[in-house]
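I am sending you the entry underneath: sequence plus fold tokens. Let me know what the token row says about the fold:
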Amino acid sequence: MKNYVLGTVIAAILIAVIAVAGVSQLRGGDGSEEASPSEAPSQEVPQRPDCPAGTVAGVELECLGGAATGKPADEGIAVVNVWAWWCEPCRAELPYLQDVAEAHPDWQVVGVHADKNAGNGAAFLNDLGVELPSFQDSDNKFAGELGLPGVVPVTVVLKDGEVRKQFAQPFSSAAEIEKAVEEAIAA
């Protein structure tokens, strides 16, 4: 019995030491706070392309680093990609979306940055060389109102503002995106 109690006490002490070490690592090891991706300090938002005017699937969002001008996203075919600056699958997928936008000027291909740090989002797109207009969604209003899963990337296909299909997966080519969009608007 004494060995069992002693073993339990030692295990509890080890867990406490590991927890304290983990907190110290999160604070940068020197006691300073290190922010998580969604809590990273905000910065000035770099200039980005202008966004379509109006709402996206009925959801009002601010343009990420640009102004809201031109044909509304709720008219015709829209391909809306929900992404975040810290998302590695998004990093791979966004250039394919740029290719789709260039190949289909009749489609509105836009992004929705689902993170509080707009500055990092705009810088991320600029670093990738992706010129897609993107909206800023600091509080995940777009995903919440459309009932999207809480993962990124998610691509939503709209026809005249109505959701036709959503894809909670990263695409691995522009051709794969085009096929998915064409099937969604034909359905």
Summary: The radius of gyration is 21 Å. The longest helix spans residues 2-26. Residues 149 and 168 are 7 Å apart (CA to CA).
